[in-house]
């Protein structure tokens, strides 16, 4: 995996964009050099290797398209969410302004399509279809997330559909693009897509769990950060679903309290989580998705040894810091 | 031309989008039904007819892609410019909010690519290349426009490059897409593109002229609207270029005055325009572009009678209300 990651990082960080207008292209250069593990474009290359493709140069444009698309969505999402930081650095709309974030995000989305156009033309209708499908779904996920923000409660199925759209379909799509460009048939494409989508869902649940139960020494963010801002996570949605009437006033009190006004907000909410065993539900569902991902992988019709890299990656992603 | 316009309007207004999330798809439905002459997608069909294509159904997806792209740029530009109205109706960010305008614009840009993907796959690399080239140029033009807004002065060549990018390349690109899909060779594609770009430039100059000198009864907007808001137009940029030192204080005074504070702002600025004959310069340059457009058209290697519809359209666009 590491040699693929090196290939991806080099391809992305040596991407050339016009010098001017600087207010259009500097933010694009900036976000693309903020680093990160580049998991999504690496997945595209790994899927290609899985299906026996040797010429990674043929896959690089699709991998770049995936990373460009992801960074477009980061620029616009950070603006919509008014996030001040991204990977510990100032976000584009903070470093420049809202208009520049809108337009440089647009430009990066166009650049994603420009990259995908460089792929083998035989597969162009299929790769385009997947990129556009994933892109619309990510937009839908972001819209649902914004819609749900203002709601008091949320059905678990709506929450799961939202995280599927917002984060998991891109993992599946990144893998599927690599599969398409390696000549995999549609059934095999679907299996690798499903593997990615399920890994993504499991990963998102783990993210929700770690935010509340992570080891403060290794987590990297403030434990309880989601609780502090009342973020809709699996844990909160589950709690709302199963909470007994007599505990509702306590939960509502905590949801309406700032951590400044109620310094025990995080620990009090964790007590409710514990009382209703919502972590157990999250762990169980994470296991279901993980299991499903591995089933999809084992159904894939490629030599076993070629599956190892992706299985190892999934394992690393899903046992992180637990 | 009218039967093509009818085809286009029907194709656009019967486009189907998912019902939900409503905050993502309602604004897309809304902007696409605000009407307008649909000049750009009609140009795509007209270019196809010019090159002898009979099957308009094969061209419709490209025409829709052009109109979707145009409407994406309207949503985002209106937000960035904080415009309250578009075609006399509330703009998307006013009717909903800024975040919804960002995301529904993004969605419509993706939908533009989704449409272009439906075109004849043989031409897909070429059509994609043109759509992405035009899209990046339109983004560049919008960024330059925003950059120039805050500047005191502006070189004429920068102004002309900005309007070329912001408005003319899409007319050229719309025509080129129709040409590509009709099998026109690259030299013919370039000629029809150049025709469109020059018509676009002439049209933009005419727009600048009409805003200051249009007939109030037929213009449809307030005459002098650009002067009131100090919009950088050909006339103002030219004036700044040629004005004698002794008139600079007067010009600066008018640029710093609101029309409420100086009710004669429009007529005083027009006096300066007249003194320095900036309208004459604009008319002359408009004629240069118009002439160039007609030269490109006459260099095109298709039967003369097939050129008539586009020549008539250009004529209608460029002699409007003068």
Automatic annotation (TrEMBL), chains A, B:
One of its GO terms (biological process) is isoprenoid biosynthetic process. The keyword Transferase applies. Belongs to the FPP/GGPP synthase family. One of its GO terms (molecular function) is prenyltransferase activity. Its cofactor is Mg(2+). Pfam families: polyprenyl_synt. It comes from the Bacteria. PROSITE patterns: POLYPRENYL_SYNTHASE_1, POLYPRENYL_SYNTHASE_2. This is Polyprenyl synthetase family protein. SUPFAM superfamilies: Terpenoid synthases. InterPro entries: Isoprenoid_synthase_dom_sf, Polyprenyl_synt, Polyprenyl_synt_CS. Keywords: Magnesium, Metal-binding, Transferase.
